Amino acid sequence: MLATNDLEIQVKALQAQLYEKRQKDKASWAMHLAIVKTSIKQPKRTHKVEVRGTTDRGKTYSYTYKYADLSDVDKSVMDAIIETKQNGKPLLTYYFDVDNQQDGVQVETIIVDATTGYSVRTNKIWFKNLKTSDAQATASLISYAKRYSLSAAFGIASEDDDDAQAGTRKPAKTYNDEELNVIWDAYVNDQSETAKKWIKSHHDAQTTAAIKKKIDAYNFTKRLDKVKEQSKKKRQQKHEQPKEKEDEVIKKIVDGGADPYEDKKEDKPMTDEQQSLFNDILG
């Protein structure tokens, strides 16, 4: 039977192992999510909606916007998941957690690392249901909430501004700096083959330029470190050379060899004061 102290030690060791595994799984999930997200191609907004209404002051308004529906958003995500497969297996998968409440609909997207099973829930999306007795309207609202949740989870812009504003918007970046940093970290520090393969794969112009910038900065740092190391070695060698020479001189004198400084000595007689001081020292 195990003593109490031994049992506590084993429990703590197991907790430490589980914590370490969880941290590794979390890092793997973050890297795989970043790889998939940066591989997503934004869906085309092929659906158009016209919104009409009246303000509190009785003024009518109307505007239109384009959007990608749930199937379009899902296709963009799944295409990226398929594109980033490793050895025929996906890095990620996902599913929805839907709660059809009495006064509204709540949806969460759960993103799962397919290689470890580690999962993370996204923020909850909730919409008020004004037609709880209408099954078709409720189904449409659930689909709407799923689209919002999935788009937010994978960084997809599924809706346009109104037509007047759409032409003035700047094009979105096709990569995310923070996500690219996660992949780069895994590649440089963890020597991740998955990250390495992704970095060396084909990308759009913006992502390729961002990766090249990181590679150039990394190579510059490595060269700089090499120069510093060479300078350090040279300083050490320069510092050690005089000491080695001094050791050789002492060794020659101890071994009874000729005094290497013989030719540099001054052959002058001592003065009376020097002789007196010398006699005092000798006693």
The radius of gyration computed from the alpha-carbon positions, rounded to a whole number of angstroms, is 37 Å
Total beta strand runs? 7
Helix content: 40-55%
List the total number of helices: 8
Q: What percentage of the residues does DSSP assign to strands (E)?
A: 15-25%
Overall mean pLDDT stands at 80
Order of helices and strands: HEEHEEEEHEHHHHH
Shape: elongated
Described by strand count, sense and barrel closure, the largest sheet is: 4 strands, antiparallel
Query: How far apart, in Å, are the first and last alpha carbons?
Result: 81 Å
Structural class by helix and strand composition:
alpha+beta
pLDDT < 50 stretches: 161-171
Task: Give a concise summary.
With 283 residues, this protein is of the alpha+beta class.
How would you summarize the topology of this molecule?
Layout: H1 4-38, E1 47-54, E2 60-67, H2 70-83, E3 92-100, E4 104-113, E5 119-121, E6 125-128, H3 135-154, E7 159-162, H4 163-166, H5 177-188, H6 193-199, H7 205-254, H8 272-282
Antiparallel strand pairs: 1-2, 2-7, 3-4, 4-5, 4-6
Helix pairs in contact: 1-5, 2-3, 5-6
Question: In words, what does this structure look like?
Answer:
Residues 161-171 have low confidence and may be disordered. This protein has 283 residues and is α+β, with helices and mostly antiparallel strands. It is 54% helix and 16% strand. The strands form two sheets. Strands 3, 4, 5 and 6 form a four-stranded antiparallel sheet that branches. Strands 1-2-7 form a three-stranded antiparallel sheet. Strand 4 and strand 5 (119-121) form a beta hairpin. It contains eight helices and seven strands. Helix 2 (70-83) runs parallel beside helix 3 (135-154).
